[in-house]
Design brief:
It contains 9 helices and 8 strands. The chain has 233 residues and is of the alpha/beta class. The C terminus is likely disordered. Pfam families: TrkA_N (PF02254).
Amino acid sequence: MALTPWLAAGGQFLASKFEQHDVRSLLPVESETDDLQDHIIILGFGRVGQIIAQLLSERLIPFVALDAGSDRVAAGRALDLPVYFGDSGSREVLHKIGAERACAAAITLDTPGANYRAVWALNKYFPNVKTFVRAHDVDHGVNLEKAGATAVVPETLEPSLQLAAAVLAQAKLPMSEIQETINEFRNRHLSELTELCATSGSSLGYGFSRATSKSKSFTSDDENQTVDGTLAI
């Protein structure tokens, strides 16, 4: 059975179970993660995080996930997945899941502020970790890049393109033409976003064009800093 449907079906039952018990058993413990090296960190175990976990599991790529929802954590644990309960913006919690030894982090939390805070913490305390984060909109993407994100992915782009491809297929367009149309639109859209972010003062751009770089322009020591009106919560 696919991972995400199972979690959706069993989440409510497991949530009610763990609401009646202490969540300490779901917290990260260093002894359970100290053998991890060059692993992937997944921050946020909702739909996107679960899909990433499934893909990594199928490829036998080591990972560890964090979420602040006990139902999601419990559902992941029920499948013997390394999912822990904790604050993704906490230096201590990130240390307990071996962030200093991780190679990358996929950040897909529920709110813009939570995503921003996680990027900020990783960039400040674990700067060697490449951070790939889901942005709710362009302004959010700019702020994430200022906080040090390696690459920002617009959350609505790919689902919209998949829907468009299905409609074009129904219109009897050849598959090769559909693929060409989708690719051209994607490249044009990301190019426009990159230019917009550049004019907004973002040092990296919007997308994967410079994913091997890390922005270091954000140096504040305040973990609750705001950037352009975005509050780190």
